[in-house]
Write a structure and sequence with these properties.
Largest sheet: 7 strands, mixed
CATH topology of the largest domain: TIM Barrel
CATH architecture of the largest domain: Alpha-Beta Barrel
Number of helices: 14
Number of domains: 2
Order of helices and strands: HHEEEHEHEHEHHEEHHHEHEHEEEHH
Shape: globular
Radius of gyration: 20 Å
Length: 338
């Protein structure tokens, strides 16, 4: 996939080449908490699943963690109480969502080699009964289709063309529709995509080595990694009734507690945009026993703020097109790049 060069990327490269990034970094242009969010580590190019879930290659992630370990205080959710009380310093939290096995295979050894911790938010049903998540299944159905478009008149006013060979725009449109649906509609939508693409449903046999195992989780926990709740089945919480939300939130934490003997301190909202959770969702997270919850729409927690909402802490996505220059700029000037 060829990524267009954005104005921010040009600015980031200029800051790097001129040495301005280093000067600004030394001037301590910000203080607070920066939370970075990853999903998958590896090479997406041979996969039929959702390419947007890959955040970095192992080589790029190694460079990023090396930079963080040398220049910032890398913390865990257990440190956040002290971080917010001190209101001093530049603290970074490294997080991963979902529980993909490549987190164990690639991210965990790199983190361990630099002596820093990562926090992994688990959608627990994927570990208990490995299956293909809805976002990967939609991508798989589109990329396996021999059609040139899809007609979903119930959900879309126009046919959705398949921008072959990678179909990234079509997949993005279908995922956007899915995220907007009420929880009772999502199963029918997936079935309609299956029928219209003529690809059938993605077999769960392809999920055999997609997710971590609980043995892997325990090994990581024993080596300083942290774990948090990310629901049981990864629904968009705002699309569910209150009792359904509470079950997803609470049971995720309880399942993790059963495996590592500790209820998670933190939770991250699936999808994580400002429409993916509500004030009621935040109250349910607090009621379930979590101390912090993380969104996913950019920004950072500045110590210049009068106070923080511990159940809506912002995170910055790290993506495949995040160059090392852009990565350094996010950490140097989050006011512009985060």
């Amino acid at each position: 996939m060829n990524y267009p060069i954005s104005k921010k990327e040009i600015l980031a490269q200029t800051l790097d080449k001129t040495g301005a990034n280093r000067i600004i970094h030394c001037s301590r242009s910000w203080s607070g908490l920066m939370v970075l969010n990853y999903h998958r580590i590896g090479d997406h190019r041979q996969s039929l699943f959702d390419w947007n879930l890959w955040s970095a290659t192992p080589e790029a992630f190694d460079q990023q963690v090396q930079y963080l370990s040398k220049n910032f205080d890398v913390v865990t959710p257990n440190d956040l109480s002290d971080v917010f009380k001190s209101r001093r310093g530049r603290h970074v939290l490294i997080t991963f969502d979902d529980g993909y096995r490549d987190n164990y295979e690639f991210a965990f050894p790199i983190l361990k080699s630099y002596g820093v911790s990562g926090t992994f938010f688990l959608a627990t049903s994927f570990l208990d009964q490995p299956s293909i998540p809805w976002w990967d299944e939609i991508a798989w159905m589109v990329r396996n289709s021999e059609n040139n478009s899809i007609d979903l008149s119930q959900w879309s006013h126009e046919k959705i063309p398949f921008d072959k060979p990678d179909c990234s725009k079509a997949i993005y449109q279908l995922l956007k529709i899915y995220k907007s649906l009420n929880g009772s509609q999502t199963a029918d939508f997936l079935e309609a995509v299956s029928q219209q693409t003529k690809s059938g449903r993605c077999p769960d046999s392809l999920a055999g080595d997609l997710w971590m195992t609980w043995d892997m989780v325990r090994e990581m926990a024993e080596n300083g990694m942290s774990f948090g709740g990310h629901t049981v089945n990864h629904p968009v919480l705002s699309s569910l009734e209150e009792d359904q939300q509470e079950a997803e939130i609470l049971n995720s934490g309880k399942r993790i507690e059963k495996e590592i003997s500790k209820f998670p301190v933190a939770f991250s909202y699936p999808v994580g945009g400002d429409s993916a959770f509500t004030e009621m969702t935040q109250k349910l997270v607090q009621k379930s026993g979590y101390q912090y919850a993380f969104s996913y729409y950019g920004g950072y927690s500045s110590f210049k703020q009068a106070e923080f909402n511990p159940y809506d802490l912002p995170r910055v996505p790290v993506e495949m097109d995040t160059s090392l220059s852009r990565f350094r700029s996010i950490l140097t000037l989050p006011q512009i790049f985060a």
